[in-house]
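Quick one: co-fold with pyridoxal-5'-phosphate.
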Amino acid sequence: MTLAYPRRNELARTPTPLQYLERASQNWGRGHRLWVKRDDLTGCTLSGNKVRKLEFITAYAQDNGYDTLITCGGLQSNHCRATAFAGARLGLQVHLLLRGERPADADGNLLLDEIAGATVSCYPPRRFFSEIDQLFNHWQQHYAERGRQALAIPTGGSDGIGVWGYIRACEELQDDFSAAGIEQAHLVTATGSGGTQAGLTLGVALHKLPATVWGVNVCDDEQYFLDKTAADAADWHARYPRATMPDFKPRVLDGYVGDGYGIAGDHIFELIAELGRLEGLVLDPVYTGKAFAGMLAEIQQGRFSGCRDIVFLHTGGIFGVFPQRNHFNW
Ligand SMILES: Cc1ncc(COP(=O)(O)O)c(C=O)c1O
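Sure, here it is.
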């Protein structure tokens, strides 16, 4: 289908490879072929799923007179780090509103935020959650008073602009499927702010990709993501009404959050180490580790039976491994 995409900045290294996981398929596949779409390779510091969204979001910012990007997330937010580097690459100032207390030593993504020259403001979690809208307004006002114009990018870049990233990625997956001889697949992704899942769900329908998209939630619950992805899709359609809104059916694999967002059990760290040894692939404890574990558990339960191919979208997150180094038992 020919879609009228808005302008985007070419920030991501695409197409990313679709890689067959031979030993993981033997170990855990139960007859399925396991594949990984390597969106952890969209760049180095500008890596992961957020880069695809930021291609469209930064172009929107430039085309609408914004010179500053404000966004928010946890202290180890991959989205914030990717935004910091996208801004640096394009000459846009970046201000990050982070949840948590600034540690004495910056590590992982936070260290990279600083290297990219982003302005970082940290807020205690309670204040962050209750006042995030006011904080965005406050800083937008702050920049306006200084003659600047700041775009507020929501958590994870998940809105009607950001979803274009994974609508477009589905075109890439069409080529991947043809090259790999995949006729029908289940496509599994971590879902945290919903935009990747919303984009894939829209993209699969719009491009008629023979795939069923599943989001493994790493926070909140199934209902939250059914609502959030539907809201992102509705925002997309409201902003781009000339695009046809397809039948939108999000699917969530709930039950793998564990003790909470960013808190992973021992089995996740063991899985990260095992997959590292087995396939040379690094997952992270916040997103992809939980999502991969969820996918394996669902394979065990027969969720995907009748379909040979399962594609795991590797959404990145490697820098989140380092601040949790103490949880690995060697
Ligand atoms: C590594 C990684 N994977 C998956 C996700 C989830 O993507 P989304 O926020 O679009 O749901 C995120 C961000 O939240 C992420 O940083």
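If it helps, Residues 2 and 262 are 39 Å apart (CA to CA).
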